[in-house]
Specification:
Elements lengths: L1 E5 L2 H8 L8 E4 L11 E4 L2 H4 L11 E4 L12 E4 L10 E5 L4 H11 L2 E4 L8 H17 L5 H12 L5 H8 L1 H12 L9 H13 L1
Parallel strand pairs: 1-2, 1-3, 3-4, 4-5, 6-7
Antiparallel strand pairs: 5-6
Helix pairs in contact: 4-6, 4-7
Pfam family, one: 3HCDH
Protein name: 3-hydroxybutyryl-CoA dehydrogenase
GO molecular function: oxidoreductase activity, acting on the CH-OH group of donors, NAD or NADP as acceptor
Length: 207
């Protein structure tokens, strides 16, 4: 099985941590000579850099596009949750409204489990985690406790693998802030907490 992937070094590491079938060969966009045809295409940099395989219309392309919707992507693109911390998980979140049969065939080849998410910004998991992170920043701004103590409390109290600030560090404050801002356009409950907005402003200055 031949797979073509466009990804940052950090995304490459997460991608390689998944379980792969025997005989699978991965070609890295920008490094390897790409085959004319491949069994699966992954555009993990799509959210930051735009579609890299827009002309590869002979097959579907799995795109890390948590903040977008399928309507804003090429017709053969299928959104996945490829954020850090989610791509490595055993169940892949996919918003496959028009290509479900093709998605199922490729997932069967890879022997990967997936769940179908709504074609909305944030899908399911990222939307929930972003809201949890936002609530943690509200608590931080109200001086309820420190970041480390809030992380510890959430892990011990809810058995989460990461605390909200650990999640934010893993995913990155920029995508979290952008997702909350997009969601807040439809529902003010997602309005970024002042402490989160302030930290994002500092990030933009130093980035």
């Amino acid at each position: 099985m031949q797979i073509v992937v466009k990804a940052s070094p950090q995304q490459q590491k997460a991608f390689l941590s998944k379980t792969w079938p025997a005989g699978c060969h991965i070609y890295w966009y920008g490094t390897d000579t790409l085959p004319e045809k491949a069994d699966a295409w992954f555009d993990l940099s799509c959210e930051e850099e735009g579609p890299a395989f827009a002309t590869r219309t002979h097959t579907i392309v799995f795109a890390n596009a948590v903040l977008l919707t399928n309507a804003s992507l090429p017709e053969h693109y299928v959104r996945i949750n490829g954020w850090q911390g989610f791509l490595e998980r055993p169940v892949l979140e996919i918003a496959a409204t028009a290509h479900l049969q093709a998605v199922q065939a490729i997932m069967d080849q890879l022997n990967w489990t997936f769940t179908v998410a709504p074609d909305e910004p944030g899908m399911i998991a990222a939307r929930i985690i972003a809201m949890i992170i936002n609530e943690a920043y509200f608590a931080l701004g109200e001086e309820v406790s420190s970041k480390s103590d809030i992380d510890t409390a959430m892990k011990l109290g809810t058995n989460y693998p990461y605390g909200p600030f650990e999640w934010c560090e893993k995913i990155g404050i920029q995508p979290i802030y952008r997702l909350l801002t997009i969601l807040a356009e439809e529902d003010e409950r997602y309005q970024p907490a002042p402490a989160l907005a302030a930290e994002f402003a500092e990030y933009k200055i130093t980035a």
